[in-house]
Amino acid sequence: MAWVESIQRAIDYMEAHLLEPISLQDVAKQAHVSTFHFQRTFTILTDISVGEYIRRRRLTLAAQELMQTSIKVIDLAYKYGYDTPEAFAKAFRRQHGISPSESRKLSGMLTFYNRLTIQVQLKGADPMKYRIVEMEDFQVAGMKRSFSLTNDENIKEIPKWWDQVNNDGTDDQLFRLNNGPIKGVLGVCVDHKNDKQTIDYWVATAFNGDPPQELEQMNIPASRWAVFEARGPVPDAIQKLWKRIFTEWFPTSGYSHAGTPELEVYSSEDPASPDIYSEVWIPVK
């Protein structure tokens, strides 16, 4: 359960530094993983981003302090990391539904978010289908964009990009080009080792040869892959599968993430089909 313990260490670090500036990079160091992989794991496990967790906890503690002490709102705003009382009041109302002054008068309900504790549920009745594959390096061709990890930009913007490529014909072009060892259109996430604040994300396909001029090409290194099967409408089935991989499979499998690009594999079937087949490929060691 070392994997679970490492995530819990990172959560404990955030809790211990809620009154200080917290960088995602420093949090990830506590779990001994890259910034991107910690952010992704945390979001899959909790359904919220790291930044949102920190905001919720700070505003929960601020509300308690507001009701239990005579501290001035302006001092409370600065204490919990807000530049102005107005910014604090806006965030406070967004979470609690009332203003700080209304909270002090006990004139409304507050929203309380407790400190997180990671727990793993082991289930056997609903099996996961996966296989381990050893594969040589191969080429992909597609479109690449860089996304910032700051303020969870990657989480917000990557789905928007998928909407775009699904509507402008890019995915149809990639399906036609596909001639490599993996069939389908790929979402490829490349974690930058040197730049802790950005990732590259590709919408691509496995392709041998010279791609069209408008597409870029990348080599996927030789890897041992854990390949997981998903069945059901996209993206819901894939999102549920990622959660099961991190909550059920990784903690007990004996494998860890190898740190090289990971893949989501989509077929050309109707994405709303109740039985559409998709895959998640994770490089493991």
TrEMBL record:
Keywords on record: DNA-binding, Transcription, Transcription regulation
All residue ranges annotated as the HTH araC/xylS-type domain in the record: 8-106
Gene3D superfamilies per UniProt: Homeodomain-like, Regulatory factor, effector binding domain
InterPro entries attached to this UniProt entry: AraC_E-bd (IPR010499), Cass2 (IPR029441), Homeodomain-like_sf (IPR009057), HTH_AraC (IPR018060), HTH_AraC-typ_CS (IPR018062), MarA-like (IPR050959), Reg_factor_effector_dom_sf (IPR011256), Tscrpt_reg_AraC-type_HTH (IPR020449)
One Pfam short name: HTH_18
Protein name: Helix-turn-helix domain-containing protein
